[in-house]
Design brief:
393 residues; alpha/beta; Rossmann fold; 2 domains; six-stranded mixed β-sheet; five-stranded parallel β-sheet; 14 strands; 40% helix; 17% strand
Length: 393
């Protein structure tokens, strides 16, 4: 099983020109680039010796390229460790563009944090390089290896699913980030407060975000909590989903929803005890699992598509809206084995306002149903058939 997981092809399609490949640790950036660019000049900034050498003299990058004139790609891993190297890369790219054709190597930068790049004032090559994302596995990438129950418990990170003891790796994942990314970079002064914040914010996963409540729960000032949330987003560990307001016909909510980037990472942060309902935690994990798939679908598909949710001030809600050049979908997620009439209320209201949309209800049952123009599908069936540029028929 482990060997099959590790050799799973990915849906990500690289551009032909220079680009950044961003994604949280464990999504498989190094594995993918090693196999896709086996002959590239590789600069691993996680290697202390390499980092020291280039920190002292970033212009050594020019010498590396001169030593491998036939190399088609130059790959810099974890570029956020040394943002200054981008200034040298930018100069080399400009020098190689003397004519209409590119004469130098293709530059590829991987990173698991956008924070240091932005804070250092680096201009990300002045628009010379595209920004791409690598997400956890999609169910369709795993195919027959996908198991919904496993995904809800362990998530979809290649680092976790490819491990001999995946539950242990998942438990250590937060420690990896807290130690290496947060503590070593000095992003927060009080690690205890940040750890309490991580636990408190886990109750907001798949819910409308109320930072004032989070601040009260973890006994940290509101402004500090705002900064902590920015750190999570900069480390690509979490994201906010905005309200869909295109041509709104009703008074709409203004607050975004919050999600950890992976269902397993959510489970690792979410405390569970006798007072916690397993079905409530499972429901939040299921919604988050669908969210990460839809987010990956938007990034891997052609065109410009975005993920939203829909909620009126009267609290009529649809969990997800996909809107873009070629697709318009509304989707409700239910952690139940049966479809009840009240489960369709939000989608029916959305359909009244947006009859052009396709409406879906994903649930834990086994039957494929069409009710009031709403396609009700088993969640697992939907996920394993969701591929870039295509929604399940």
């Amino acid at each position: 099983m482990r060997r099959k997981i590790e050799s799973t092809p990915r849906f990500f399609k690289p551009p032909a020109d220079h680009y950044f490949l961003l994604g949280p640790r464990g999504t498989g950036k190094t594995w993918w680039t090693q196999r896709h660019y086996p002959d590239a000049i590789r600069v691993d900034l996680l290697d202390p010796e390499t980092l020291r050498s280039l920190s002292a003299r970033p212009e050594r990058l020019r010498e590396l390229i001169a030593g491998r004139p036939d190399a088609q790609q130059l790959l810099i891993d974890e570029v956020q460790k040394l943002p200054e190297i981008l200034e040298v890369a930018h100069l080399l790219i400009e020098e190689s563009k003397e004519g209409k054709e590119r004469h130098g190597p293709q530059f590829i930068f991987t990173g698991s944090s956008a924070r240091k790049l932005r804070r250092a004032g680096v201009n990300l090559l002045g628009g010379r390089a595209a920004q791409k994302s690598l997400h956890p596995y999609m169910a369709a990438e795993l195919g027959a290896l996908f198991d919904l129950e496993v995904a809800l418990r362990l998530g979809m990170l290649p680092m976790v699913l490819g491990a001999i003891e995946p539950a242990e790796i998942l438990r250590a994942y937060n420690g990896l980030y807290l130690r290496e990314e947060v503590q070593m970079e000095g992003l927060v002064r009080n690690m205890g407060s940040f750890a309490r914040f991580l636990e408190a914010i886990s109750f907001s996963h798949a819910a409308v975000l109320n930072l004032a409540n989070v601040a009260r729960e973890c006994q940290v000032p509101y402004k500090t909590v705002e900064g902590y949330l920015e750190i999570l987003e900069d480390l690509l560990l979490a994201y906010r989903v905005p309200v869909f307001m295109r041509r709104a016909k009703r008074d709409m909510s203004m607050h975004p929803k919050f999600y950890f980037f992976d269902a397993g990472v959510f489970r690792a942060n979410r405390p569970a005890g006798p007072l916690d309902s397993p079905s409530e935690i499972d429901g939040a994990a299921l919604e988050g699992l669908v969210a990460e798939h839809l987010r990956a679908w938007c990034d891997y598909s052609d065109g410009d598509h975005h993920l939203y949710y829909w909620q009126t001030r009267a609290k009529v809600e649809v969990d997800f809206v996909i809107y873009g050049a070629s697709e318009f979908h509304a989707m409700e997620i239910k952690n139940t084995a049966n479809v009840r009439p009240e489960d369709l209320r939000g989608l029916r209201n959305f359909g009244e306002d947006y009859p052009e949309s396709r409406r879906w209800l994903l649930y834990r049952g086994k039957e494929r149903l069409l009710i009031h123009g709403i396609l009700c599908l088993p969640c697992s069936d939907f996920l394993v058939n969701l591929t870039p540029n295509h929604f399940p028929a």
